[in-house]
Amino acid sequence: MKVRSSLRALKRKADSIVVRRRGKLFVLNKSDRRQKARQG
Length: 40
Known about the structure:
- The protein is mainly beta.
- Helix content is 10%, strand content 42%.
- It has a four-stranded mixed beta sheet with strand order 1-4-3-2, with no helix packed on it.
- The protein is globular and about 25 Å long.
- GO terms for molecular function: structural constituent of ribosome.
């Protein structure tokens, strides 16, 4: 999982969802499981 300052590029990909957990933003992708990122 990558920690990024901007999640804009990752959240534009197909099947990606933006989730807020424990005060952090996560981007997860159902079709490509390797596309994960955290912000904050």
